[in-house]
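Lay summary

Proteins are chains of building blocks that fold into shapes. Our project writes down both the chain and a compact code for its shape. Here are two examples, one after the other.
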Amino acid sequence: MKLRLELEPEEYRRLVELVYLGNWIVNGIKEERDEKYDRVEQKVYQLAPDAEMEGAFELDEESGQLFPSDAFEEGNVAEAIDAYDEYTLWQELADRLARIELGKRFPPEDFAKLAEEDRERLWDEAARPFLEEFETHGAARLKIGG
């Protein structure tokens, strides 16, 4: 079965951005790429001339693969990646610090026995001060060690 999707050029541009961002998440930090995502990405990129996106991709002569141009990567996708990285950095750090704080107050088996809404409330209460600190001061007042 083959699927058909009709998109306006602007919708196609958004699809390209989504595919790029999705593959960046899946393959961006791997040593060995998951090629099934690369194949789908290439199929989407190959439609670029039909959507008047000629400068958005560059052809690698050796591999025959299309890659986003620098101009493409410096646009909306770079902003989205930067915003995502900024958010996840502070959220993950606050979550890990909250886990440490909660571990001081509750043995893991006791915390697991709490109702889900109580665990979520306690987690939020433990993470909130860290999130507020990071929002106000970033990493400026982080101290490592005693």
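And here is the second example, written the same way.
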Amino acid sequence: MTRPPLVTIIGKSARDPDDPVPPRALAAAEEVGRLLAERGAVVVSGGLSGVMEAVSRGAKSAGGLVIGILPGFDKRDANEHVDIAITTGMGWMRNTLTVRAADAVIMISGGIGTLNELTVAYEDKPTVILEGTGGWSDRIRALAYDGRHLDEARRATLHFASTPAGAVDLALRLARSAGAAGGEEELR
């Protein structure tokens, strides 16, 4: 029996009304969730608002399974589209669990919490950054070594896509391949 791939979506939350999630990020997240569900993947996120809620909504619209790994102790904090709410009581430290659960990670937009998740994922999980969604997703390439590495040693490679379909295709391909984090793929 083969298990479905778990793809963690990291991205900007909607907790600060003075710093809203870009509408293009929400639309992209919803499409990513739908496409992942259609391809049989399980969607994992932090289970809250913003990109996390949009990806959950998209996955549910296609009959997918959604897991939310929550920072607090109350399952009621999960957005309404989460099927399995896992409470941690760990605050931001839950970012490690959210990312480590994944076979691949897709980053959409993002604030400081998302940047933290990206650095946790970098060496151990193949990570696709969906550019054009605002936040750190649109800035990280300019700051990275050679546009693809977070460390001078170039231990791992960030992957980039410019469409939700490209991000999903690449994440699922990377999740299936051995040694995917060191690959050179990029989809536009």
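What can we say about the second shape? Helices lie at 23-38, 51-61, 94-100, 112-121, 140-143, 164-176.
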